[in-house]
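Entry:
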Amino acid sequence: VQLQASGGGLVQAGGSPRLSCADSGRTFRLYFVGWLRQAPGKEREFVARINLDGSITYYADSVKGRFTISRDNAKNAAYLQMNSLKPEDTAIYYCAAQLPGTKSYAYWGRGTLVTVSS
């Protein structure tokens, strides 16, 4: 699994960018996918996670109702649709892959910076 996150940039508050997470490998469908973020001066935090077939999703309370995680296993990709962005959503966003039954993410992509201007 080799993950690469993209889609970040400078966005105005209230904007709706979509982040993408692409895997160049062939086993993407075997992993849960998570999005995590790290804001300046803060610890990395969980944002969202999706199961193998996309039928179950989890969200941090801070993004629930605004962000939507999805995946397309045929394209070896996952997405994070971000709506109603707030300045406090400014962070480096990472996608990561977790093998079912394990407790941690095994693979991490290079993050993509999302900066929300007020």
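The mean pLDDT is 96.
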